[in-house]
Amino acid sequence: MNVGSFDRLLRFVLGFGLIGYGLFQAMTGEATANPQVVWGSVAVGTIFFATATLSFCPLYRALGLRTRSA
User: Fold this and answer.
1) Contact 41, 18 (CB under 8 A)
2) How confident is the model over 18-36, as a mean pLDDT?
3) Which of 2, 11, 12, 50 to pair with 41, CA 20 to 30 A apart?
4) d(Cα 27, Cα 63) in Å, to the nearest integer?
């Protein structure tokens, strides 16, 4: 557990926004015009959402970072 409260909140908001953007674009037919951007935003949003839910970021661990107080 290395993700703090503010960091978790930010990750939830960004994750939800990116997933929503990708799904909205897919439902309106924009995914056929630029599928890499649309599905890339869903993938990144899912990663943000998962790390917020688990309160753990593997990249933070690899870099030795921690936003959660001990």
Assistant:
1) yes
2) 85
3) 2
4) 38
Distance between start and end Cα atoms, the chain: 10
What SS3 state is found at 3?
Answer: coil
pTM equals 0.84
Rounded to an integer, what distance in angstroms lies between the CA atom of residue 12 and that of residue 6?
10
Question: How far is residue 67's CA from residue 69's CA, in Å, rounded to a whole number?
Answer: 6
Quote the CA–CA distance of 62 and 45 in Å, as a whole number: 20
Q: What is the pLDDT of residues 28-69, one digit of tens each?
A: 887 677 888 888 999 999 999 999 999 999 999 999 999 998
DSSP assignment string, 36-52: HHHHHHHHHHHHHHHHH
pLDDT > 80? residue 5:
yes
